[in-house]
Design goal:
It contains 4 helices and 13 strands. The strands form 2 sheets. Strands 5, 6, 7, 8, 9, 10 and 11 form a 7-stranded antiparallel β-sheet that branches. The protein has a 6-stranded antiparallel β-sheet with strand order 1-2-3-4-13-12. Helix content is about 25%, strand content about 50%. With about 250 residues, it is α+β, with helices and mostly antiparallel strands. It is elongated, with a radius of gyration of 26 Å. About 25% of the residues are buried. The chain starts with a helix and ends with a strand. The longest helix is centred in the first third of the chain and has 39 residues. This is DUF2993 domain-containing protein. It comes from Streptomyces fungicidicus.
Length: about 250
């Protein structure tokens, strides 16, 4: 009986040691992976990386992680024209079935899903900022974007009628959608009125309706869904065969 107790104690101690070794190893691997992703994606800050699943050492030996979560606080995505970037805040991706090289220099995930946010001031950069003629004697320009509730964007349009600026911007509720997996499209549900003056709908939509292309996301993930929220546009991203290579 005493021998059995000793065996159980030794087994428990060895099990605890193995757990500690496993956790230390995963922490080292997470740090190495984070450094690699920072270099690969040319990030300013080191991303957060969590390798899930237990035990870690078994996954390491197999060369494939079940699930890896990556968090990037600020990511500079392309806008398609090569002249500027757009800041993606709090990009978080959940990678599954991640096959990796021995030095973590490359990795390929079977699939990826995630979320991100584009602040309204970032999205506003692509809306018309110069006054445009929308009717005889009437000019207008977009001056603000905000949460319109129920997944809509509120587009605020400043108008000048016969030389007099309206006292308040006109709010327009707009729908926001994803086009072709790389473009956010904003379309007014109905065109606004400016002081009762008849307007040209196509001219007004040239102001209120716009698109923002977003490309160069990590690993080639693409936009899936988009919805207006309090602090900006919330985006869902997804991808398959997502590569994180040097």
């Amino acid at each position: 009986m005493r021998a059995l107790r000793i065996l159980l104690v030794v087994t428990a101690i060895l099990g605890g040691i193995l757990v500690v070794i496993d956790r230390v190893a995963v922490n080292i691997a997470e740090g190495e992976a984070a450094d690699r992703i920072k270099a690969t994606e040319n990030l300013k800050d080191t991303p957060d990386v969590s390798i899930n699943g237990f035990p870690f050492l078994t996954q390491l030996a197999d060369g494939t992680f079940d699930e890896v979560q990556v968090g990037i606080r600020d990511y500079e995505a392309g806008t398609g024209d090569g002249t500027r970037t757009i800041r993606i805040a709090d990009l978080r991706a959940d990678l599954r079935g991640v096959a990796f090289s021995g030095d973590f220099g490359s990795a390929v995930a079977d699939s990826a899903t995630g979320t991100a946010t584009i602040a309204y001031d970032e999205l506003l950069e692509n809306a018309k900022s110069e006054p445009s003629r929308v009717a005889p004697g009437v000019t207008a320009k977009v001056v603000g974007l905000s949460d319109g509730g129920k997944g809509k964007i509120k587009v605020e349009v400043e108008a000048t009628v016969l030389g007099a600026k309206l006292p308040e911007p006109v709010g327009v509720l707009s729908s926001v959608t994803v086009v072709d997996g790389d473009t956010v499209r904003v379309n007014a549900d109905a065109v606004p009125e400016f002081g009762g003056v008849p307007i040209i709908e196509s001219a007004v939509r040239g102001i209120t309706d716009f698109e923002q292309k977003i490309d160069g996301l990590p690993g080639g993930i693409r936009l899936d869904k988009v919805e207006a929220a309090e602090d900006g546009v919330d985006i869902t991203v997804k991808g398959s065969d997502v590569r994180l290579d040097q």
